[in-house]
Write a structure and sequence with these properties.
Strand content of chain A: 15-25%
Radius of gyration of chain A: 26 Å
Largest sheet of chain A: 6 strands, mixed
Low-confidence stretches of chain A: none
Helix content of chain A: 25-40%
CATH class of the largest domain in chain A: Alpha Beta
Shape of chain A: globular
Distance between the termini of chain A: 64 Å
Oligomer: homodimer
Number of helices of chain A: 18
Structural class of chain A: alpha/beta
CATH architecture of the largest domain in chain A: 2-Layer Sandwich
CATH topology of the largest domain in chain A: Nucleotidyltransferase, domain 5
Chain lengths: 625, 625
């Protein structure tokens, strides 16, 4: 049977294959934050003609069902179908990267004193042709030339001998070597006939528990060429790392969990590769940053011991892996550098964050916090670094929130609620894109705004009589953030409870760690905030919510996704890779889960802004107003 | 359908599967020097009940056909069969190695000043258990322990991380590391839980053009534990290296040719592994020696450029390969060390031979000659080494000779012909084994004996009226070496022509190379002879034949298969591996194929003993007698 899209494109399908799978087969990737379980409601398509057997209607409104909406992951065609894919369901690459972002990244790299010196290096070599008088073997000829050029030793993995003779002769003894430099020696990762110096690209990856972000980078200029991101489809094995480890350990699903994220990376890779008409040989190397569990699952390493006392990861500094070993769709010898980790619950994403903020170079004491699915905090300076993890949950990335979504086109990223009139103004990411959901920064704005407008009480309960935007929905009370054509975007009371638990964990982490090292918030000169909230995080509102401590606003700096920035830096610079390894070795780790004071702090944080109002004098004053 | 053996063993078969293949499937390997083409006649079996469709009857006598003999490679069962396998058809391991041989090898190793220091090394480590206070990652724990023991750096290929956590904990933090030492660093090739120090074995291989020999060696004691050998089944792609290169190049059969020899090695490996009840993890490393083409084909490297001017091999010093890369049935990470080669036509087998004779250490000028399928000659001393190759052909290994066979049980290795009575006495390899064929040393004895008895003239023609053992057979005149029960062993006139061409090429090689370096036979203090002739080579008879120069008998030393001896030495000693690489670098190569004087010498050698009788005064005197 056939599925025809409103664009006219036709694809083959069978009754046993979901619409989502058929689309994927044809290279059309939909957003699917639950990994295809039929629960997140993000892979909606509209069946405009024909019948599909729709196994789940979760997150679909009555109106949508009436209009023919189905969830592509759990809808199976009963015959030929004509379908329409709403824009917000399609996973896309950004295509044209905002020039500013690429410039900022390059400027950051240059500010560290590093030059462009990527993980992989290419050499073009014109070898002298073999003759009866100069009849050394092909491999010796290659090594002799490297020696003559002062490049030193060359390690040639056995598999490259297979076609060496042909490759060397194909373009009249001109070849291009793609190499990596390890252990004081170059190692071949690919050999091409002729001059293949350019184009060459590298891929930086942030493997988040909730989100996977890919940067396609020009290794010659350092330019950020494209960005793509998607949900980590491991989500179908659980929202957080612990549930996934349990699945890997107790349900023997390690291999499936590993393949889920590899498949996500391959999807993103397909998108950028086809978007720029590259062949896969154009990609020379990968750098990945993720928390320790994500790194191990990406690499296919059993994470069991991460969860069991005494919480030991398999490695903190990883040997290079090769694309072929992991099933990444690139040349099998393309090297994959994994960011060094610190401990079971402070991983490579945090090392990447410190690297990006340069906290490890400064004399003053700074805090770095990465609010992703977990919430890791680093405090320190150029002398010492101390870290901890507090389990914040993935709600700021849109997961577990009814209309939550990542900070991409269509996300409400800014919400302004007038305390008097209770009017709501929103700002949506993208040019003229209708709102499709709400991202982390929007949620913080909305909840802080509702609180100051009296729509929400200190315990996080909605007040029915204050605003007519509060109504009773299927999950209890909910606040309508945006309403149009019957497709409302709401925050429900369970959503808000989720957010309060998350912000309480984050604040408790700050407080506990600071207390452990014997400092107070006054000693901290700078707070770097990373996370997937959106382009901007309203610091004042995050303080109002009690997520951030009340400190002078100028001390805060919102950095966005620092994991991908660190990954970008290491992709391009040997100096950065060496710094990353130093950071991972130098950082100590404090286990908060065994700390009583952390639990106390957490319980105190389950109010807006906090049980201890003395710590939030400014918010207290505003409340009075 | 079923095949039942006279031993009672029953195996399943189908009409489309040859008896040879069904036997192989069941772990019963037959000799098959033509690689299953139905032409060598060595895989005979007797069908005692039932019918088989026999596609080739080559090399089967009328009597044999009457008795039910078929060639297993081209016989296909039409129904259930009862078969009997003659002992000489079965490929066997020696099982119990003559103690003397193992002692001789060990003595040779010790005489070089080398200690037992195998390619691979195992360490047993009791690691401290991980605790909350000592919570570094598993990999760092391992590396820390190696550092603490002063063993230095450890390279851990990524794939070993996959099960590291489990392996380390399985036997209470005791593990055994199997490693190789390369580039000043240990590299892991296997990790076991608990104490797996012993047993551990290595495999030395001689990959000959005609014959593959395997030594199973105890890496702890250096003891030779078992020996197995078979024909190289690449023979079905041609008898000599050139024909095989043509097949690889022009018929795109490289992969099939590669797999043929890998399959031979796997057959031999199966035999020794089952013979000693080993599991495949007990084998830690392989060393292979072969000529350059055999080495490249074993490694799966395109040999095209070896045959084309300017005759360039892909490599002379090879990176380590791993069993998994080549399809060798052992742990996938088991390293395979390939002997360094010198040039396209002087390979690792010759370097191994020099290493075994110690020629490269001596002040006096010596000659080393390896008479296998090709015939390579080295002349030199501790200062210089010069080599050349003369195409002698595989007849001394039994190939291309009607009743030729390798020097194994059942081979006639010694033939004495009384010049007066023309009576013939033979000696057969093995205890009370009936003669099954004739090996290289037997052929030389027989031809020299026939010549001195006047049964053969100087041009190699049989004289019908001199002995009643000369008769007319299907290939023309033939000499009956042994007769019993209608299964005669003969040397035919085409066999003898083959032998004369081979000996002429060898002598021409000697003479040309010596002339090139400006020496005469008188300057040579020692001639080391290697090859697969049999246990003993009668020097006097080889001189009579004109294969060896007439020199004092004491200057000759017959060494047997030096390629496998060199392979054994390198398997056990780092010093030997280093010497082998030095020899390969130091040796220069002379291309005889472009030399006019070689062709002249060759033509002069097509007589017994030689056209120039002045070079053979002793033989001349004997002829007069």
């Amino acid at each position: 049977m056939k599925i025809t899209l409103s664009t006219g494109q036709t694809l083959e399908s069978t009754s046993g294959t979901s619409i989502l799978a058929s689309l994927k087969e044809a290279g059309i990737f939909l957003t699917s934050s639950c990994g295809g379980k039929g629960v997140c409601g993000k892979c909606k398509v509209i069946v405009t003609s024909g019948d599909a057997d729709s196994k789940s209607k979760m997150k679909l409104s009555r109106e949508e069902i009436g209009q023919g909406y189905v969830l592509a992951c759990t809808a199976f065609p009963s015959g030929d179908l004509l379908i329409d894919i709403p824009k917000e369901s399609i996973l896309t690459v950004e295509g044209k990267v905002v020039t500013g972002r690429s410039k900022d990244l390059l400027a950051l790299l240059q500010s560290t004193g590093a030059t462009i010196d990527p993980l992989s290096e290419r050499f073009i070599m014109q070898l002298p042709a073999a003759t009866l008088d100069d009849n050394i073997s092909d491999l010796e000829r290659l090594k002799r030339e490297l020696m003559a050029r002062g490049l030193g030793c060359l390690r040639v993995p056995f598999r490259f001998l297979t076609n060496l003779a042909q490759t060397m002769r194909k373009e009249n003894w001109q070849i291009t070597l793609s190499t990596i430099h390890t252990d004081e020696c170059y190692e071949i990762i690919n050999i091409f006939a002729g001059d293949q110096k350019a184009p060459r690209y590298g891929v930086a990856l942030d493997i988040g528990t909730t989100t996977v972000v890919l940067y396609l980078v020009d290794l010659t200029s350092g330019e950020l060429v494209d960005v793509a991101s998607t949900y980590n489809s491991q989500i179908r094995f659980g929202d957080d790392v612990i549930t996934r480890i349990v699945h890997a350990t107790e349900h023997k699903e390690l291999n499936n969990i590993h393949r889920a994220v590899i498949s996500d990376v391959n999807d993103l890779l397909s998108l950028v590769v086809s978007n720029h008409d590259l062949n896969s040989d154009a990609i020379d190397c990968f750098v990945i940053a993720g928390n320790t569990t994500m790194t191990q699952l990406f690499l296919g390493l059993d994470p069991t011991t991460i969860r069991e006392d005494p919480y030991i990861p398999t490695a903190n500094i990883f040997p290079l892996a090769y694309a072929g070993e992991l099933g990444i769709r690139s040349h099998r010898s393309t090297p994959i550098y994994s960011f060094p980790c610190v401990a079971s619950y402070v991983g490579g994403d945090i090392v990447a964050g410190v690297l990006a903020t340069r906290l490890h170079e400064k004399e003053e004491i700074s805090i770095f916090i990465d609010i992703g699915t977990n919430g890791e905090i680093v405090i320190g300076n150029s002398e010492w670094l101390m870290s901890a993890a507090c389990s914040a949950g993935p709600c700021f990335e849109g997961s577990g929130i009814k209309h939550g979504m990542r900070a991409t086109d269509g996300a409400i990223e800014d919400v302004l609620i007038d305390p008097e009139s209770k009017d709501v103004q929103i700002k949506v990411i993208g040019d003229n894109v209708p709102p499709a959901g709400i991202c982390g920064s929007g949620m913080i704005d909305a909840v802080a705004g509702m609180f100051l407008a009296g729509i929400l009480d200190q315990k996080g309960k909605l007040q029915e009589d204050v605003s007519d935007r509060v109504r009773r929905g299927e999950d209890g009370l909910e606040f309508v953030v945006h309403s149009s054509d019957g497709r409302d975007i709401v925050l429900t009371e369970p959503d808000i409870e989720n957010l309060i638990r998350a912000k309480a964990a984050i604040y408790a982490g700050f407080a506990t760690l600071l207390h452990e090292v014997g400092f107070t918030f006054d000693d901290v000169q700078k707070v770097y905030i990373a996370g997937g909230f959106g382009k901007f995080l309203d610091i004042e509102k995050a303080i109002t919510l009690g997520m951030l401590p009340e400190m002078p606003k100028g001390k805060f700096e919102y950095m966005g996704n620092t994991s991908i920035v660190g990954s970008y830096l290491c992709l391009l610079s040997r100096k950065m890779r060496s710094e990353a390894e130093d950071i991972s070795q130098k950082m100590t780790y404090l286990e908060l889960s065994v700390s009583n004071s952390f639990m106390d702090e957490y319980m105190s944080g389950l109010f807006i802004p906090h049980t201890n109002m003395e710590a939030f004098p400014g918010v207290k004053a505003m409340m009075k107003k």
